[in-house]
Hints:
Number of helices: 11
Order of helices and strands: HEEHEHHEHEHEEHEHHEHEHE
Distance between the termini: 67 Å
Protein name: Universal stress protein family protein
CATH superfamily: HUPs
Amino acid sequence: MEQPGAAEHSLGAVYHGVDIMSTLDHFESAFRSASKDSFTWAPPLIRKILVVTDLDAPGSAEFEAQIEPLLTGVLAHTVAAGVSPERRVVNGSDYTRVDELHQLVQDWGPDLLCTYRNLHSSAWSFKFSLGEFIDVLTQATSVPVLITPHPQQAQTAAHALRNTDVVMAMTDHLTGSERLVNFAAAVTQPEGKLWLSHVEPEIAYERILDAIAKIPQINTDTARNLIRDKLLQQPTDYVEACRQVIAEHRPALEVKPLVVMGHHLETYRQLIRDHEVDLLVMNTKDEDQLAMHGMAYPIAVEIREIPLLLL
Length: 311
């Protein structure tokens, strides 16, 4: 006669009638299915560029010339598509209030807005915000905003503003980020390097493992390795899908994965410094809230040494 618990022992792990190994296999299959995200090549067509400053006409012209190297990639694609981009420069005397600038942007309808952090603000020397004008431009309009360090800021990376031969696309959910990847590829200059980065939050991973450690029927060491591998495999597979498609259209562009686990702000500081990134591209919209989503805002505030493209 079979002893109580023998069936459970023979199967390796059965908990309240549920085969743990079978359940893990189910989750593994789900991960594999989800990792087959595809990527569609759809680079943005930048027909209208709006340059916004709080300077006089000569100062605005100087800033426009300064950002020209950052536009090499998108301009090359637009011209190749047979479109001659229209450009407009807004000086500091053209507006005084946030609502005036917002209305100006809405009326002209640019495809890309170029400005700098702490626009129309005396707080540019403080490291606490982007300024109210930038907050409104990024959240109350659908226009991608390219922001550079403030013209008076001294702590700018030596390689910044020279070109866009090293660009990084940043997200904590890389899969399905077609618009992000397409924009990042578009702003990367020909024969440049595009890093597609995904930082899996380590604190969330540790919280999962802490819960698993309290379930004696699950081997914690095995779960630690399996879950970590699966969490990182999905974005890694997506980067490879992006690389293959982009190579068909931009064979000279080198697309590289940066898929790691860590603490978002600290990790991105290190990645940007290690790879001498010229431009960081990231999503800022969140359909569930008015403010920038997730870690986008603290990263945008604290990564001050290089230009950012906020989508």
